[in-house]
Amino acid sequence: MYFESLQAALIMDGHGSYVWSAYGLSLFVLAFLMGLPRRRERRLLQELRGEQRRNEHRPSTAMKGS
Amino acid sequence: MWSFFHKLGSPPWLYQISGQILRWLLPLTLAALAVGLLWGLLYTAPDFRQGNSYRIIYLHVPAAVVALAGYYVMAIAGAVGLIWKMKMADIAMQAVAPVGAALTFIALVTGSIWGKPTWGTWWVWDARITSMLILLFLYLGVIALYEAYDNKVAAGKACAVLALVGTVNIPIIYKSVDWWYSLHQPASIKFTGESTIDPSMLYPLLLCIAAFYALFTCVVLANMRVGILQRERRAAWVQRLAAQVS
Known about the structure:
The complex is a heterodimer of chains A (66) and B (246). Chain A is built from two helices and no strands.
């Protein structure tokens, strides 16, 4: 490691707050970005599953739209 | 060769193959990102003029580079959609737009944070920065325009036209640091001629750029999978997939 201690790495000669906030913010945005399709896929499949369940109870309309 | 293009237009095949790619590409991407960022953050020497604030480069440059490259992908997908009416092209455009917007946002925010200790200001209406802000609005515009239409075929066309018109902005971003007197420094990495960056800083930066490209690919693929499911929701294979949901 370039820095002598963890504390030195956090402070970075006064630039620590800039560097760490840039990394924190960016990683937050990236994590959100990567989580978005997973959540959307799950929500969509659950929505479709819900439609299937409703159609199972009403067999006369089960073929509607398919 | 032609059968490959036919497959490319086949939603279930695309859904399946993208899932297989993501299974190994995503862990690889996360590992490369972690190694690249920690390397730059903790294991390189500070810049002799900017000190430690320069470490923001390992986020700023990869985000900006891939945000620009992503715009080409989106514009090309738009053109393909307009010319060949491929429905996958619309899905690809909508898959790229949020990733491009997020990366442009990261480039702008990290640039702003970097600017404070380096230039003494958070923001200047500089050519490079302003054209990047326009890039963000173009990405957001493509997302908003698509949502605004109920008819998704018309929406795809409108987005494609917006994306294609917006490509005017791309060479402006590239050349802005050369054409106008600017606070923003010119490129340090050059494909022709000597790079003005020390190898000890260059290698982690290249790794980060590669990791950001991989991350872009991963999220675009994942977004496309959702887009495919959405569009094929009435198809038997999607219904079978939904039936497995508890």
